[in-house]
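Regression check, zinc ion case 274:
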Amino acid sequence: MIDVSSSEFRIFAPVFVFLAGLCFGSFLNVCIYRIPLGQSVLHPPSSCPKCKNRLKAKDLIPVFSYIFLKGKCRYCNEPVSIQYPVVEMITSVIWLIIYLRYGFTIEAAGLILLFTILIPVFFIDLQHMIIPNGLVLSGLIGGAAVFLYHVFIKPFGLYESALWYTPLIGMFSSSLILFAVALIGLAIYKNDGAMGMGDVKIFMPIGLFLGWKLSLLTLVISVLLGGITSIILLLFKIKDRKSAIPFGPFIITAALFSALYGNQFLRWYLSICY
Ligand SMILES: [Zn+2]
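Current build output:
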């Protein structure tokens, strides 16, 4: 049995979580690169996209390989995208923040699972404007496992409610609102509208993990973030009115805030309103 109160555990566990996050981030890079191409994320092993040389273990040490090789491929000297170490760092920092916030708990495990799936969604939507169904499905399977634990073993989670069906309402709260918005967009503009079906779908695992309150908070914050960012991009003429901006990255940023601080935020907000 692990003694979670021992001083050794309190010192080494965060370091372990951080390093494990770095290694998993390295795998997420493979997912971000291969999933949009329809390739397997498990096989074949990683190779340089330019010279096709198979990468060795020493080339695959997260972040450090990038620094030692000064951001270049060891074999062909072509620059390697900064995105690789960035994804590794983001993954490890998110794992660490969740661990420091929730400790050695089932909540922390569930959130680490959720955001490990949402990080590739963030980058794939940013680059390709798609949210792959495989990632949505992985999120739903993980969310279902957490839901079954909540129903049959012990009520828990961020829902702050012992009602067994709270996560199910969460699964359909924001996603149905966005689905209605997408349908209205389709009816008025006769196109996909601003809201893609990927955004509707990704709210299902988010709601299943976070419950309906934090799912709705995520929706409100993501709309605000997306709106403010669009105005800034238009003002500085980085984008014009016709160009589409992916909404997924805002949903995921908002979901992270909600998962970490949403319940405190809602309590504070309600206390100043009433
Ligand atoms: Zn190369």
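Comparison notes: The chain has a mean pLDDT of 90. Residues 4 and 13 are 9 Å apart (CA to CA). No diff flagged against the previous build.
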